[in-house]
Amino acid sequence: MTWKVIYTEQAERDLRDIYEYIAYSLLEPETAARQVRRIMDAVVTLNRMPLRHHLFDREPWHGKGLRILTTDKYLTFYLPVEAQGVVAVIRVMYSGRDVVEQLTETEEIK
Length: 110
Prior knowledge:
This protein is α+β, with helices and mostly antiparallel strands. It has helices at 9-25, 29-44, 61-64, 99-104, and strands spanning 4-7, 67-71, 74-81, 86-94. β3 and β4 (86-94) form a beta hairpin. α1 runs antiparallel to α2 (29-44). The longest helix is centred in the N-terminal third of the chain and has 17 residues, at 9-25. The N and C termini lie far apart (29 Å).
């Protein structure tokens, strides 16, 4: 089965923020483009066997089926919706951030 991968508005904003931080704050636009591309290339692989990545171990997200894909130092949080064959990418963030705080602020999975 091939799953359809979609990004929430927040996840798209997260990718844009990652690019802008690396490109404009660190003054490394080529590195920024490569990093975002690596994340997106990893995300597209979720179209096959998205359940292979582990569940986030904190509640209430664990109970909702939130999973994590790691790419370099970035975490992609996603929800597989088996009945629809869809993988919804909820957030993408740097692993050094307060992940729980960031997820708490995310509307789609409250």
